[in-house]
């Protein structure tokens, strides 16, 4: 994590310096960071933590005409597997709603490590910069031939999220939300958490 964060801060600094140059250029470097601060309600030790979930560095080049080029580097662990997604949604000035079905194969490059899931999400727009949102995700793994249980049964679960989000400007977005995790494995207890998520764009 320290190496990733160091590389990320170094790269962001380079992007900002490059973007400040006065040379004529039709390209623009950018960086985007996804972080969170979390507090686990059910944990007797009242564990809190800060997470650097993922980060994107890139360069967007748009010359005159219809051509554009975009380079993005994902700082973190890439996912190398086949993914199929079907999505349908509705959005207007008052609310939005969407539903998604997904199927991923060979997670972690392991043959037969397939997962599928269903998701539903919706928002009520309080004003152009604030919204109340909710999301429900159902995720389960497939059984590998010869195994009695799904290969990732310890992580198979239903997730419910609800909260409020505020966009402060084009570069800063924050959301306070409650999360419930309902494991599919028998004997596993539900977990409840409060998260403060933030996105910073440079």
How far is the first residue's CA from the last residue's CA?
21 Å
Estimate the helix proportion, in percent: under 10%
Low-confidence segments: 1-24, 66-70, 72-79
Q: Would you report the number of β strands?
A: 10
Strand content: over 45%
So what's the overall shape? Answer: globular
Order of helices and strands: HEEEEEEEEEE
State the strand order across the main sheet.
Answer: 3-2-1-10-9-8-7-6-5-4
Any idea what the radius of gyration is? 20 Å
Q: Please tally the helical runs, counting DSSP H or I stretches of 4 or more residues.
A: 1
- Domains counted in the coordinates: how many? 2
Q: What is the overall pLDDT average? A: 76
| Secondary-structure content class | mainly beta
Largest pleated sheet? 10 strands, antiparallel
Describe, in short, the structure shown.
This protein has one helix at 2-19, and strands spanning 27-40, 48-61, 69-75, 82-91, 95-105, 115-127, 130-141, 157-169, 172-183, 191-201.
């Amino acid at each position: 994590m320290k190496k990733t964060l160091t590389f990320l801060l170094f790269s962001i600094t380079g992007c900002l310096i490059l973007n400040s140059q006065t040379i004529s250029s039709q390209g623009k470097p950018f960086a985007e960071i996804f972080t969170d601060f979390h507090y686990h309600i059910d944990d007797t030790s009242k564990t809190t933590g800060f997470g650097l979930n993922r980060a994107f560095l890139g360069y967007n080049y748009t010359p005159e005409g219809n051509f554009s080029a975009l380079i993005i580097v994902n700082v973190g662990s890439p996912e190398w597997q086949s993914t199929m997604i079907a999505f349908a949604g509705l959005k207007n000035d008052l609310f939005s709603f969407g539903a998604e079905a997904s199927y991923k194969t060979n997670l972690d490059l392991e043959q037969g490590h397939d997962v599928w899931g269903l998701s539903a999400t919706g928002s009520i727009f309080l004003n152009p910069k604030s919204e109340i949102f909710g999301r429900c995700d159902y995720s389960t793994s497939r059984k590998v031939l010869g195994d009695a249980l799904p290969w990732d049964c310890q992580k198979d679960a239903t997730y419910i999220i609800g909260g409020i989000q505020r966009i402060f400007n084009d570069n800063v977005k924050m959301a306070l939300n409650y999360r419930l995790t309902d494991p599919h494995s028998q004997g596993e207890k539900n977990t409840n958490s409060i998260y403060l998520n933030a996105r910073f764009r440079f």
